[in-house]
Amino acid sequence: MLVLTNASGIPWEAAQHTGFISIESPSLVTCTATVNFHYEQIHGVLHKGQTLFLYPPCSLELIHTPASAFTVYHIGFLEYGLTKESHEKRVYELTSENLPAHGSKTGATSQGLRILAIIQELTDKRSGSIMTEEARSHFLLSELLELFRLAVKPATEMVDSVIRDALYYINHHYGDHLTREDIARMTGFNASYFSRFFQKQVGRSFQAHLTRVRMDKAKQCLLSTQATLNEIALLVGYADGLYLSRKFKQFTGISPSEYRLQPRARRIATVQYTGDLLALGVQPVAASFLPWALSPLIQDELLHDVIDLDEHGVEELLRAEPIDLIIAPDYLYYLPHKLEKLERISQVIVLPWNQLDRLETVRLIGRIIGREQAAEDWIEHYTTRARTESDRLKDFIKPGETVGLYELWEDGTICIWNATARAAYNVYYGLHLTPHPNILRDVLEPDNHQYIEEDQLAEYAADHMFLVLPAHKGGLYHDSPDKLRERPGWRKVMNNGNRRIYPLQLEQFWCNDALSLEKQLELMVDILIRENSVKAR
Fold it and tell me: 530: closest CA among 479, 473, 462?
């Protein structure tokens, strides 16, 4: 039995950039326009006509860059299963046994129009008896879920959380002696079941994926270091260079020495590293234009003929002049179908994501594409710029005062980023500002993001707090931090008269590539000086 809990058509205004939907019961979400979405740690695109299914509790962020009005539809419901039956009564209890997987999304199928029609009918507030409305919604929901199951894409956008944990472990321990049995035991499955589940989710066997990760690391070493084959072999988990050479040729079709000596790439496509390439003076042929991959701060740096990889990019690039190289982050291991699409275009080199010092990432890419001097020049440019901006702050940050960077999520969670995200590198290593001791201890030294609740905020609150806020209608506007006083934890922190909060726009600080980092540096210093100048009047 299905019971409707929410049926709403939410108007999206033309000037609106982002919006949030609180998922409090199993829900289907669809839009009459194409939007980008973000929930938990998942990013994706919901095309017009597609529908997304989510379990609670969850906060779904929708991002729409073009200025246009459309409608977001949200259908929430509960499923009850019959658990006891007698002549006197029937007992129904909540269940999710027949519901789709969290994050399921429909493909482009003929069911899309009917799904949208049912959703629109459910949101139509018709008059009638309660019984009539309940019966109507039950039958419509039943048809809707059946159509949704038929239309769900056969290849999921992201692998199951269990397999994601296994992939994460492989990505960070590829140099160790790893066996299928070890990883199966770690995830709580027997080896046989784990093997089948892994194959189904990733599209290749455990051993084939481990080999792939090791080959990707070997490629990176061959292009960016002068290490010998034996040294690289030991680094990626093989006994000697001879064995690595044999495996490498099987995997790529050429020997490691041939790979190392091939001409450096000139026509390059990228996911996530656009700003790093631009900082090196390289205009990518194609790039991901998603908000978390391309900051609005650097969009003007791109020429109009750069192909958007997320909008029919694969087909367009297959028809165009050949691409020499695609640079991609290793989180695409969790999106195997996307990685496979990129491999249809050209060879892909996979780089560690959110693991390297930001300047080291620029240096690594410079070595890979033969732009070593350009990388060193940009690093010198950035450090000089950071010293100049640091000098501007001397009259506004007193000796001994601490600084931190935080992000407030819609559910109230506060994230304290390490130096790999949200321009935190600028704060602690570019400007060399002093972190709060607890941020140094719990975030920077262990090199981990920290997620805290409001009642913990006072333990981490610095004298100067850069705060990343989502700027969307009806939420916490980036220019209205005083709204935070409505929250007890924030009110306690803000009542300290010496504390300063500097709001930052999420869409400007989402990306952390080289060119974005440079532009964010000046923005951060400008707002700190402006807020303190206003306070002093």
Answer: 479
Any idea which residue has 């205004």 for tokens?
13
Cβ contacts of 316 within 8 Å, gap of 6 or more: 286, 307
pLDDT, tens digit only, all 537 positions of the chain: 788 899 999 999 877 888 899 999 999 999 988 888 988 878 788 888 789 999 998 899 998 876 688 999 999 999 887 777 676 777 778 877 778 888 888 865 556 667 888 898 888 754 333 335 666 677 788 878 877 876 775 444 567 778 888 999 999 999 999 999 999 998 888 899 899 889 888 888 999 999 999 999 999 999 999 999 999 999 999 999 999 999 999 999 999 999 999 999 999 999 999 999 999 999 999 998 877 788 889 988 876 788 888 766 677 788 888 999 999 999 888 888 788 888 888 999 999 988 888 999 999 999 999 999 999 999 999 999 999 999 999 999 999 999 999 998 877 889 999 998 899 999 999 999 999 999 999 999 999 899 999 999 999 999 999 999 875 444 444 445 677 888 888 988 988 878 999 999 888 998 999 999 999 999 999 999 998 886 655
**Following DSSP, what letter does each residue of 128-148 receive, concatenated?**
--HHHHHHHHHHHHHHHHHHH
Q: Are 416 and 378 in contact (CB under 8 A)?
A: no
Q: Which two tokens stand for residue 428?
A: 């602690």
* Alpha-carbon torsion, ordered 418, 382, 500, 445, to 10 deg: 30
How many residues appear in the chain? 537
Q: Is the dihedral of CA 253, 255, 256, 259 positive or negative?
A: negative
What DSSP string runs through 406-447?
Answer: EEE-TTS-EEE--TTSTTHHIIIIIS-PPBPHHHIIIIITTT
Between the CA of residue 230 and those of 176, 240, 399, what are the distances in Å? 15, 5, 50
Kindly list the distances between the CA atom of residue 25 and the CA atoms of 29, 79, 94, 130, 515, in Å, as whole numbers in the listed order.
12, 10, 11, 21, 41
Report residue 109: phi and psi, to 5°: -130, 170
Q: Do you find a cis peptide bond into 57, omega within 30 degrees of 0? A: yes
DSSP state of 234: H
Q: Please state the φ and ψ torsions of residue 393, each to the nearest 5 degrees.
A: -90, -5
Inter-CA distances, 480 with 238, 405, 453, Å: 55, 17, 21
Residue given tokens 């996307």 in the structure block: 338
Location of structure tokens 């996530």: 272
* Owner of token pair 């924030």: 490
